[in-house]
């Protein structure tokens, strides 16, 4: 009997994906609001921000068949969050949003492996990410995916960052890229 399994595929997002990206952001924010009072809920992100990331090739999607299962953005520069550590060559991952139909399938680990490979290809030494506040569930999840939890950092210069970073403390995570 033939298997109907479709291996996930990671592709650059395109401008045609922008409505689905925002749908997944809204669903992620609703999930954040429903699951924990301590979690900061994502704001409505500016469409111009995502449109610019699409133009720059910094928005990604994990496809299962014809369906977007996850989206995320990357950057090589994140000084307002990482301060002096921003001088290190790194890929910074932001706004991982999973389609609710695909939660629990380990796709963050798939994204982490992709990010390590991507970092290597671009001569970066680290994959980094952050989350607002001290979300113990995400800390456990990201450390299980191989990240080192670096602790909390109070943000001081948040001009131009999305609203959830204003007056925020962030949990920082780092994963060295070997070889």
Give a structural overview:
It holds the Pfam family Acetyltransf_1. GO terms for molecular function: acyltransferase activity. The protein has a 7-stranded mixed sheet with strand order 1-2-3-4-5-7-6. Helix 4 links the parallel strand 4 (90-98) and strand 5 (126-132). It is globular and about 45 Å long. It is 31% helix and 28% strand. The chain is of the alpha+beta class and 179 residues long. The mean pLDDT is 91.
Structure summary:
The protein is α+β, with helices and mostly antiparallel strands. The chain contains five helices and seven strands, in the order βααββαβαβαββ. It has one domain: Gcn5-related N-acetyltransferase (GNAT) (Aminopeptidase), CATH 3.40.630.
Write the layout of secondary structure elements.
Elements: E1 9-12, H1 18-35, H2 47-55, E2 59-64, E3 67-75, H3 79-82, E4 90-98, H4 107-121, E5 126-132, H5 136-144, E6 148-154, E7 169-176
Parallel strand pairs: 4-5
Antiparallel strand pairs: 1-2, 2-3, 3-4, 5-7, 6-7
């Amino acid at each position: 009997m033939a298997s109907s399994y479709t291996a996930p595929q990671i592709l650059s997002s395109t401008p045609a994906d922008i409505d689905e990206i925002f749908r997944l952001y809204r669903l992620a924010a609703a999930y954040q609001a429903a699951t924990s009072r301590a979690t900061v809920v994502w704001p409505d992100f500016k469409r111009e921000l995502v449109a610019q990331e699409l133009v720059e090739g910094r928005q990604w999607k994990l496809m299962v068949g014809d369906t977007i299962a996850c989206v995320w953005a990357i950057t090589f520069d994140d000084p307002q969050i990482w301060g002096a550590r921003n001088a290190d060559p790194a890929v910074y991952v932001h706004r991982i949003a999973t389609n609710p139909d695909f939660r629990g399938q380990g796709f963050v680990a798939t994204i982490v492996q992709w990010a390590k490979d991507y970092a290597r290809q671009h001569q970066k030494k680290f994959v980094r990410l952050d989350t607002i506040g001290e979300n113990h569930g995400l800390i456990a999840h990201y450390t299980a995916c191989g990240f080192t939890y670096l602790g909390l950092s109070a943000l001081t210069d948040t001009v131009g960052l999305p609203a959830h970073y204003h007056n925020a403390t962030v949990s920082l995570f780092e994963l060295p890229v070997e070889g």
